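Posting this for the archive.
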Amino acid sequence: MDLFSRRSLLAGSIGFLPGLRRETEQEFLFATADYEIRMSLEYHDNEPNRGLGFEERSTNRHFCLSTGGEEDHDCINDFEGSVAVMRYRIRPRAPSGSKLSLREYVRSIDQSDWLPPKAPFERVIEVHGGHASDIQVYGYRSSGDQKTSRDESWCLLRQNLYLRDSAAPFLVVHWKHTLRQIRVLDIIPQQGTSTLTNDRRRR
């Protein structure tokens, strides 16, 4: 059983294809001096034998992901594990002709002893129509493999989020990944960011 942990930061509002179970959803609102940010988080826990299929909601474009995070190439049809989708809606407080981008810097801060070390990584995307999405996947291709004690594996990640070319993050998010579920542990507004409302949950 080869575990993989992948992240895809994409422009647009991304969702699972219809028919997949949604465990819960959280919503957060934040504001900076220049922007209001709505974050909507969907958890899909312990997906058994599913394909990793998604849709871009504004265009109705369907796509799937490989173990390496590539779109529509060597797609996974026998995934077991968990998925989380964070969607961002970012609105400027005043009209602006500048292109908006979202940047993340992610590093592992702790994990199961037997997992190989993960190098920090950084990714930038342009935000289209005020929307961006972050897909997180932790699991394996089942292929009839028997489950082992390694199903108890876990990792903790720190995600710094930046707007445009800012040198300082506007949010810090801590995540815990396991095969049974992916969860946000906390979201910490940084200097210059205020919380407008907190954690609206719905099923």
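The first strand starts at residue 4 and ends at 11. Residues 4-202 form one domain.
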